[in-house]
Amino acid sequence: MVDAVHTALSNIGFGDIEIVIAETGWPSRGDTNEVGATVENARAYNGNLIAHLRSMVGTPFMPGKSVDTFIFALYDEDLKPGPASERAFGLYKADLTMAYDVGLDKSSSNHKNPPTSPERETQWCIPKVEVSEAQLQTNIDYICTSQVIDCGPIQPGGACYEPNTVLSHAAFAMNLYYQKVGRNPWNCDFSQTAMLTSQNPMDMNLLFVSGWNTCRVGWFKINTSCALRPILDFQSRHFLPKKSSVDNKVISIGAIIDRNSRIGKEQQVAMEIAARSYNSTSKTFKLAIYFRNSTTDPLTAINLAEEMINKQKMQVIIGMHRWSEAGLVAEIGSQAQVPIIAFAQPTITPPLMAKRWPFLVRMAKSGLAYIKCIAVIVKAFGWQRVVAIYEDDAYGGDHGMLALLSEALHDMSSLIEYHLVLPPTSSLHDPGGFIREELLNLSQTQSRVFIVLQSSLEMAIHLFKEASKIGLLDKESAWILPESITDLLDSVNKSAISYMDGALGIKNYYSEISTEYQDFESQFRRTFWYQNVEEDNRYPGFYALQAYDSIKLVTQAVDRMNSRNTSSPKNLIGEILSSSFFGLSGHIQFEDGKLLQNSILRLVNVAGKSYKELCFWSQQYGFTTNLPTGEGGYYGGGNTNCFSGVRWPGNLKQDPKGWNMPTKQNPLRIAVRSRTSFSKFVKVDYDHDGKRATYSGFCIDIFWSVRELLGYDLPYRYYPIDGTYNDLVQLVYNKFSNLILIICYDAAVGDMTILEERMQYVDFTVPYAESGLTMIVPSKSEESAWIFTKPFTWELWMVTGAILIYTMLAVWYLERESNPEFHGNWKSQISTALWFTFSSLFFAHREKMNSNLTRMVMVSWLLLVLILTSCYTASLSSMLTVKKLKPNVTDIQWLKRNNMKIGCDGDSFVRSFLENVEKFKPENIINVTDEYKYDDAFQNNSIAAAFLELPYEKVFISEDCNSNRYTGSTPRNRFGGLGFMFQKGSPLARDVSKAILNLSETAELKRLEEKWLFTSNKCSNMTPDTDNTESLKLRSLWILYVISGGTSTICVLLSTIQSLVKYCQSQSVAPEDTDNPSDPNAWEKVISHAKQMFNKKINNSSEAQEQVVTDCSSRLRHVRMTDSPELQQEMASPVPENSTLPSPPPEVHITNYNTDLGIAKTSK
Predict the structure, then answer these.
(1) At what angle do helices 1004-1013 and 987-1001 cross, to 10 degrees?
(2) By CB distance 3.0 to 4.6 Å, which of 98, 473, 795, 907 could disulfide with 724?
(3) pTM exceeding 0.90
(4) Exposure of 889 by Cβ count < 10 A (0-12 exposed, 13-18 middle, 19+ buried)?
(5) Beta bridge partners of 603
C-alpha cells in the first residue's frame, strides 16, 4: 500500500512528499465471532511492525527508508460502542497497565524478563551466515552500548573472548541480548542480519563452535563472574578495536563530549563509524577511542583530560564543544605535549595563541563569517535596530561575538537596541518561567528583529516556545537562528522545529552528493537509531561530520608519520596541522592552529515542521542562489531572488518591518507642541472645559496627507506637549531608556528643524520645508532725485548718446547741399542738425528733408527711438509705482558693534545659534514667544532686528505685505529643513519620507503651503526686495543700434559716391583751360571739388540772408526771377579778398519758395 501511494504521487510529480501511516494496529481481544483478535496476534503484528521500521529496510520502491507510523492505539477505549475489538486496540489497558509488550516500554530494557510463552524458551538468536563482518560489528556496537547486557566476556581477557572472531563475539552478544530483553521475534532482527533457531547451537556446525561450552552460559543466563568491567557506564565508554593475529599498534584517542546533548550523541556515533572504518582497512595501526562525558563545568573537562593524559596515556584528545573547556584543556595538553583537537574557538582570537598553546588544533569555524552574514541580512531588509539574545556559558565566552555583531551592524548603519543574556539551562529550575519573564521585559522595546547569537538546543526550544506565547513571533517580527541551532535542524525533533516557524537560519554548507557522505549517512542512521531510540530523527548534522573528519584527520597524520618512521608528539601535531583534504564537513586546512576560513554558509527558512533552503552566502560573493562550480568560482546570480520565498512569522506575505507597529489597541503616540510662535504651522485649541484638544495647521495637514499615501493603516493619537523643541527630542528618544520614568512618545509632528545634534537621538523624515536663518528689520522708503536715470544702465545711456550724435552728422551730411535749412556757417549747421535729431526723439522736428537717403536714415533712427521711449516709459513707471524699500539695518556686525537688541524664538535652536555661532551677547537677545509680539517689539524699539527661520519669515512678511513695514534678508545660514521626528530605527521614518516626496512631486505640498502660509495671492507673489527691478541693459537692444548706425553709414557712403560721380561728369564736359600746362591729378580734383562745394555753400548762405521774410508767421509762395547778372551780384555775398575762387559767370537764377513745404529751389 505504501509503495502504491508513493508510485501514484511520483507519476504526478510529487514523489518527494513524505508519506505517513496515520493509523495501524491489531486488537488484543474481541467477540467470539472475531477470529484472530488475541494478545499473541496483536503482539506479533505490532512487534514485527516496529522491528521492520527499526531495521530501516524500507519497501521495494523506498529501500533504506523508514516511514513514520502511528500505532492505533495507546489505550483501550472501554466506552467505545461497537464490537469488542473496537475497544481493545490499545497497547495499555484503561487502568494504565500494559496489555502486552512490544519493546517500546522502558521496562523492556531492564533486567526483568517479561512473561514469555513456553515455546520460545528453546529458541536461540544466531547471525545469518551470509552477513558481513562489518554488519556484525555494528550489531556488537549496538548491543554493547545499549546497557542491556555485559559485554565484558568478549573483551580481551574475558571468558568468552576466544575465539577472537567477529562472528563468535556477535553470536554471543546477539543471543544474550535476545534472551535478556524478552525473546520476542523483533528482538532478533538486527536489520535482518539474525535469525531464530530451535536447534541448539552446540549441535550446529558453526564457525564459532570452538569454545562454545565455555560461553554457553551466555545463551541461557547471566554469568556475572565472567564479566571484567563494564564497557559502557554513565561516565565513560570505550570503543576498542578487535584483536587479530597480527600485532597491531593501538592509537589511543580520548573524546570529551556532552553525551547528554544531541550534539554529543552525534559526535560519538560519527567517531565510532570513522574508527571502525579505519580499523577495518588499516594493517598497521588500530584506533581505540575512550569517550568521557563532560558537564557544563569546565573543571570537569580538566579532570577528565588529566586522567586521560596521565593515567590512560591518551595520544590525542578530541572534543570540547565550548571554548571555556577547550582553553583549559589546551593548557594541559600543551604542557604534556598531547595534541588537543577542539570543536570550539574564541570569537576574538587572543594574540600569540599559537605560541601559547602549540598543541591546540581549533577544528571549528570562526563566528566572524556568521556575524557578517547577519549584518548583511539586516542591511538587506533595512532594519536599523535589533535585539541580540545569547545563552551565557557562565564564563563570558560570547561577549566577543556580541562586540563583533555591534561593530558589524554599525558598519551597516544599524545598532543593537537591547541584548538579552540567558543563563545556562542546567542552572535554571524553571527555564520556561524565567525566559517568559525576560521576554516580557523585552517586549517593551520597539525592535522586533531578534538575533540569537549562541544557544543550546534546549534553550532555543524554550525561548521560541515562550516567545510564541507572548506574541513575539507574530507579524512584523523577524528571528535569526545561530549555527549551533540551524546545524541541528536535520536532526532535531519536528515538534521542536514547529516553534521556530518563520525564522531565518544560517548553517554551514556541506556537500551531500559524495559517495563518502552517502555511505556515512547510511551507517550513521542505522547506528544512531540503535543507540538513541528516544530520538525520532536519525539524520546526521554538521557536528557529526565535523567529528568524523577529526578522526580522519588523526588517522591521516598517523599514516604519514608512520611512512616517515617518526613517532614523537611534535611530529604528530606537525602532521595534523599540515593536513589538507576535503572531508565531509568541508575543506580541512589549518593556519596558525585554526581552521582556514573559506566558509560557505547556507541560508535556510524554517517552515512548519521542516525547513527550506533559500540561498548561499560567502564573504567574497555575498548572496548567490547557485552552488559553487568549483574552486573559487560561482555561477552568476545575486541576491535578487534570495529572499523571494521566505516564510515569515505569522505567515506574513511581505517583508517584516522588524518594528513594533502601531495597532488600534496600541496606536502611535505622537507628541505635538502646543505653544508655537507661528500658529499657522501647528495650532492646538481646547474646548470649553480644557480637556479635549483639536489640532490644525500646515504640519497637521501634511501628516494627514502622508497617512493616505502609506499604503497601510496607521492608527495614531496626538498628545499636546507644553515644552521646547529639545524637550520633544528627549521625549521621543527616552522611549529606549528604562531609567527615566516619564511618558514617552513614538513620534513628533510639527515644525521641528533637522539638526545634526538631534539626529543622534531620533530619526527625521526628509524635510517638507526648507530652513535658513534670515534677519528681519524695519524698512524705509528709498527715494532719489536721479530715479529718472535708473531705467537705463550707464552703458545704454552712453551708446544712445553716441548714436544720436552719429545720426546727427549723417543727416547734416546728406542735407547740406539740397536743404537751405542746413545752410549757413558751421555753428548754424551743427545746431540745426543737432536740434533736428534730438527733436526727433519726441517726434517734434519741423525741418524738412530733401534727400531720400536722409529719409532712410530717419526711418531706422525713429524705429530705435520708438522702442527706446516705450521701454523707458514702462521701466520708469514701474519704478515710480512700486514703492522702493530699504532696510534700516543690513549688517549683523553693526548690530553686534552697537550692542543692539535682537529678537528670536527662545524655545528653538535659534537662540543658542546666535549665542554660540554668531557671538551675540546673551543679554542682547530678547525671547519673543508669539508672532504678533514682533511688531510690538519693533514699534517700541525693544529690538532692532528679528532672526527667524525662513518658513516663519515668509509668514511674517506675508502678513505685513500691505504696509511693507518690514523687509527680510537673504538667509545667511542653511539648515536641514523642517521634518517630523520618529524613534531611532523606526521604519515609519522611511515610509513617511517617501510619502512626503510624493507630495512634493505632485505639487500637493505647494498647494498646502499656499493654503496655510500666505494670506492672499498678492502676498504670495510679493517680492520684498525691490532692488530686484533691474535697469534695461545694452544687450537687450543692441541689434537696433546696429541697424540704425549701419543704415546711416550706408546712406552717407551712397551720397558720397553720387557726388563724386556728378563731379566727374561735370569735369568731362567743361572747357579745357589752355593756360594750365598740365592736367591736375585725382587728389587735386577732389580738393578742388571740395573747395567749390564750400564756396557754393557760402554763396547759398548769402543768398538766403537776402531773402529773409520779415513776417515769419506766414510763408508766401512767390517766384523771383533775376534776368540780369547785376541782380545776382547784388544778392550774392561779397567774396573775401583773399579768396582765389574765380568769379562765377553771369547767369539767371530762379528761386521758387514753397510756403507750405518750406523748400527753396534754385535753378539756373
Answers:
(1) 80
(2) 907
(3) no
(4) middle
(5) 506, 615
